[in-house]
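SAMPLE LOG
Freezer: B-3
Tube label: C17
Construct: single chain, 290 aa
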Amino acid sequence: MSIPAIPTLPGRAAEVRGLNSLARAELEARAGRHLAVVQDLDALHEHFAESVLATLGASREVGRPPALILPWGPTAQYAILSRLLATTGVTLRGATLLFMDDYAGQDGRALPSSHPLSFRGEVGRWLRSLDPGLRPAREDVLFPDRGSAGRIEQRIAEVGGIDVCYGGIGVHGHLAFNEPQSGVSESGIRRVALNEFTRTINAVRAGVGGDLENFPKSAWTLGMRQCLGARRIELYCRSDCGMDWAKTVLRLALLGRSSDDYPVTWIQHHPNYRVVTDRQTAEPPSVRLA
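STRUCTURE (predicted):
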């Protein structure tokens, strides 16, 4: 697959310089209720797990089976969620868990579960680690893949829509694997080419020793249409891997002009969204480019 060219929004560079000059307090003031800042990465993962737990409980209180869009990455919140499920009696049984994306192999299909980079494989191992009474049914855990679009759309309709779309934000503003692409805000479930920004930073995280030659070049993803269609959007944005990379995209997600060159900016048109970050990521960059 080739990656379609998408022009940067005119004036974006000047906009970024202005956003990156904002002190944390000013960023929080301008973002208002759409931004939550926690102390550090541990607190961020705790927040993520506790939010999922609360969503599971709240949905059942109104008599609706929970339905969530979830990312596999960041992942530290899932160990915390396991502990919370075990100690509170809240369960994933009956919940629909729609995972955002998964890498594709050279044949165009999602990687097999046995592949070390397979999100489906990692999710399966996490779910099997739970007490059987806490696990969702196999048919209630869905991933985008070749041939799954109709089944996923049908499930979303059957459960009455998605309660919350949880996710992270990519360095170039992708939500799920919705890379910068013309018309991305209306996109549906599909296979996408991954740009080199995404492949590089994800390869660093994956511990593959810089093997960009064999790192996946495409992925299956939910579209922005599915993500933006949730009743609430809650995204977690933080620097990691010892690299200070998330400050700019955090500011763009919250305060940048909405455009296809940074897909996450389209969340600003949703009536109920929030980005959660840690104090360090919310600080401005130590070096700002003129």
